[in-house]
Structure prediction request, 178 residues.
Amino acid sequence: MTSFSLPPEGPFETLLMQYIPRLRRYARALTGDAAAADDLVQDTLERALLKQALWREGSDLRAWLFTVMHNVFINQVRGAAANRTVPLDEGLVQLQVNAARAGDRLDIRDLDAALQALPEEQRSVVLLVGMEQLSYEEAARVLEIPVGTVMSRLSRGRERLRRLLQDEPPAPGLKVVR
Prediction:
């Protein structure tokens, strides 16, 4: 397992170090792959160190770091030549369910697969609000979208997750009329 360590050169680096576990958790849930998540965290920390002058002392560093990570992730997705599916990280699932019952393991595997099936916009909102417990306002700042959009994407993402987990057919999409 890759371990991240920053030399404690100053107060900013010390502050960054306390958020590494949360960044890793969010990155793993976002990418679905441990190696890609570690790369994303490393790229995020590198960008944060390079752009630390843009962070205002006294503001929410956690939200700022999630914003940096989201932007790095979007840039990576946009840079990918083709849309590809992200494999399920069995190692992460095993860590999360090591002490759980066999039925719980299947539920977590199904939840992870359903999360990966969500469109990125919905998955990001569901993870920030559900897993990281950011408020709607904080998630809106991280994703640089209006609060209403956060609420809408969260609602659609939760509904789609419910349908996927209950093996219901997807809701009919809207047709574009020209």
